[in-house]
Amino acid sequence: MAGSSNGSSPDPRPAIWLCHQTDGIEAPPPAWLTGYEQDTVRKFSGPREREYVTSRWLIRQAIGKSANLPPHQCRPVAGRPTASGRPDGWQLSLSHSHGLSACATRASSPIGLDLEPCQRHPQWQKVARRWFTAVEQEWLFREDDPNAFLKVWTLKEAWLKATGRGIAGNLQTLEVRKNFEIYGDQPGEDWQASCCYIEGYLVTLVFRGSRPQWPDITLLEPPPGDFSLVDAVSMEASWEPLFQRTIRPKY
């Protein structure tokens, strides 16, 4: 089963679990949400509320399938869901956009995930001028390829999640050069990046490890209308590998 590593390997294989969000009759937030999640979901309404609950449903599915437990026995830590709270021992990274949610899992090792719709890149030159390094701007503007920009952006987002930092003041801690040579500010540690297309989205994963690995990728059926924690069935999904890179020390 995808993501079934028990953490005994020194370089456990990462996994990505995905599900589409479905429209339906508005229902009260499910009782299985933690107190922190109940407080958070009250801040949302409509599609944003449904997106939040879908992502929390997926987190429990991802932990359960990784740890070989039913989803109702699983939950993330309180606050930002960067690790499993029950059972412990799994690192998590969550991303969702435009109707697709994804959760990456890995045993006992930092991981970062970002996804973006393949067509989502308006005014990318403005973003690059504001946030990217001079080296990145030079080759991106010369190539004039919005998809190249999107790959760089998701690499940076996944890197910051894996290293536990926010966007503000940190986007240049990872520099992506031509041909996607990647340099980060974490000397003395091995980091890997994998990038692929899945279900019309660009999905990028960053994780600490001594060797490149493609993640196990599983698309799950969407949650039921009441978001009950039934064990979700996997569905067929198409994905296209793009590139793998070792992130080299920047200094």
Structure overview:
The protein has helices at 35-41, 46-67, 124-131, 134-143, 146-162; strands spanning 15-20, 75-76, 84-86, 90-97, 100-107, 111-117, 174-177, 181-184, 191-198, 201-208, 216-220, 234-235, 239-249. With 251 residues, it is α+β, with helices and mostly antiparallel strands. The longest helix is centred in the first third of the chain and has 22 residues, at 46-67. The radius of gyration is 18 Å and the shape is globular.
SSE string: EHHEEEEEHHHEEEEEEE
Number of helical stretches of at least 4 residues? 5
Placed side by side, the strands forming the largest sheet appear as: 6-10-9-13-8-7
How much is the radius of gyration in Å? 18 Å
N-end to C-end Cα span: 39 Å
Structural class, by secondary structure, is alpha+beta
Mean pLDDT: 92
Main sheet record: 6 strands, mixed
Outline type: globular
Could you tell me the strand content as a percent range? 25-35%
Task: Give the helix level as a range of percent.
Answer: 25-40%
Instruction: Give unreliable regions as ranges.
Output: 1-8
Count of β-strands: 13
Question: What attributes characterize this protein structure?
Answer:
alpha+beta, 6-stranded mixed β-sheet, globular, 5-stranded mixed β-sheet, 5 helices, 251 residues
